[in-house]
Write a structure and sequence with these properties.
By secondary structure, this protein is α/β, with parallel strands linked by helices. It is 25% helix and 31% strand. Helix 1 runs parallel beside helix 2. The protein is globular, with a radius of gyration of 19 Å. The protein starts with a helix and ends with a helix. It holds the Pfam family FAD_binding_9. InterPro entries: FAD-bd_FR_type, FNR_nucleotide-bd, Riboflavin_synthase-like_b-brl, SIP_FAD-bd, SIP_fam, SIP_rossman_dom. This is Vibriobactin utilization protein ViuB.
């Protein structure tokens, strides 16, 4: 059985759910000292939906030294490879290229380990993407906040805003060298806060947001990152500022001390 036929078999899902694409790395580089951008290209991206920048996706990672044939076979038969949630940073339909940004924290975690060693020709499995998180831009003022895990969704949101949009964006990063060039509207003030130890609880974003003179009119948000920070900001926005939930995208992407599988279990339990 060929690799292609095995992939087609592995892609078979109940209820017509599409199976994984095996994506091939075109290039990988350090965008900043603590962020790696990986660009994928190849025929596996044929039919990739446009307009999904900022959407969630799932990636599944091969073992060290595992070749493509063995990986496809494992997708079909198990055991399942490590699975992690990421964000589509960009998609170029003309050139058939898609990029995902990875927070670089060495070999601590399968995704960071994979990305830190990624080179042209490497591969992973990709499921998704979902729909973008923020698509309606009709507010008078915007509040965007993110730590490194959520910079991609925040950056995409800023880049998609009307060019006359006004607001504030706060990015909490590991070092000042982790600042990125983001094509935000001129009326959105961007602030970079440094938190050298992401594994330590931080109130820097909340402190900053509480100190902002609150604007009049309709406010929309795009806020994501560590769950403890997000929980406090959600309470502030919903309970104190009375923002409607329909105007507030705010999501915990990870939690200090937990791997993704553990964090997802906590989120499901809290939602019950």
């Amino acid at each position: 059985m060929t690799v292609i036929s095995k992939l087609k078999q592995a892609a078979a899902k109940p209820k017509g759910r599409p199976g994984p694409r095996i994506l091939t790395v075109k290039d990988a580089w350090y965008l900043t000292p603590n962020m790696i951008r990986v660009t994928f290209a190849g025929p596996e991206l044929d039919g990739f939906p446009e307009g999904r920048e900022g959407a969630n996706c799932k990636i599944m990672l091969p073992n060290d030294g595992e070749d493509r044939t063995a990986f496809v076979d494992r997708l079909e038969k198990g055991p399942p490879p490590p699975r992690r949630t990421y964000t589509v940073r960009s998609y170029d339909a003309i050139n058939g290229e898609m990029s995902i940004d990875f927070v670089a924290h060495g070999d601590n975690g399968p995704a960071s380990k994979w990305a830190s060693h990624a080179k042209a020709g490497d591969f992973l499995a990709f499921l998704g993407p979902s729909l973008p998180k923020v698509v309606d831009f009709s507010a008078d003022w915007y509040l965007v906040a993110a730590d490194p895990s959520a910079i991609p969704v925040a950056a995409v949101t800023l880049e998609a805003m009307p060019r006359d949009a006004k607001g504030v964006a706060i990015f909490e990063v590991t070092s000042i060298e982790d600042k990125q060039d983001i094509h935000a509207p001129e009326g959105v003030e961007i602030h970079w806060l440094v938190q050298p130890d992401p594994q330590s609880a931080s109130t820097a974003q909340e402190d900053f947001i509480r100190a902002i003179p609150w604007p009049e009119g309709r406010v929309q948000t795009c806020i994501a990152g560590e769950s403890g920070v997000v929980k406090s900001l959600r309470a502030f926005l919903h309970q104190e500022k009375r923002l409607p939930r329909s105007d507030t995208y705010i999501s915990g992407y990870w939690k200090i001390g937990l791997i993704e599988d553990e964090h997802q279990k906590v989120k499901r339990a809290e939602a019950d």
